[in-house]
Design goal:
globular, 4% strand, 2 domains, two-stranded antiparallel sheet, 8 helices
Length: 225
Amino acid sequence: MAEIRACEQCGTMFEPRREHGRFCSSRCRVAWNRGRTKYPPGEASALDWSFAAMAETIDRLPRVKAWDGARAITVIGEAVWWVTIVDATMVRYHPDAYDQVLAGARDRQVIEETLAGLRFVRNHMGHDIDHVDFVRAATSRRSSARGQAGSWTWHRLPCPTLGTLQPRAQEWELDRYEAYQHRLADRPVGEAFGRAHCFLAEAAAVVAADPVPGAAAPGVPTPSH
């Protein structure tokens, strides 16, 4: 049975094509954006502070030594949390900027699957899958960054039990799991975080440059390439 939601603009019941879908059509999404003169208190700065926290956490990865297992796992878990928070904030409050940057990306599928894989980690890390089962210390001596937590790699995992979820939710979670296996498993954690940070920084910069009232997020830096 498909999941049905009410459009936040017109109230029409619809089947979302995206996990965080809120509108039944692009027309309703545009009308909703135009009808808002400003975000409620807190929403306007949500992207600003969550992006700053994400960037700071990812910047800590190279400074954490790979042999410090407990600290490495903690920082990796925090990075997963903040990346997915920024991603969700962009999708919910700034979908046009998000889609604009995604549509122009040469490696769009890689970006989408990387973010989906990190959402899978967020949904299961510390719940039905223990933190230590997700990552392992790097063993390759060829990596110049092997002494850093960013050189740890994601484990290849069996598919989790999804029977308690609704059919559409199972489908989305299975897609996230497959994205994890395809883009994260057996690869350095720093690779996924670097890719996610680059994309989200570019999308946030588009939001910051948007003159439409209520769409800007002051203080978000423009990414360097």
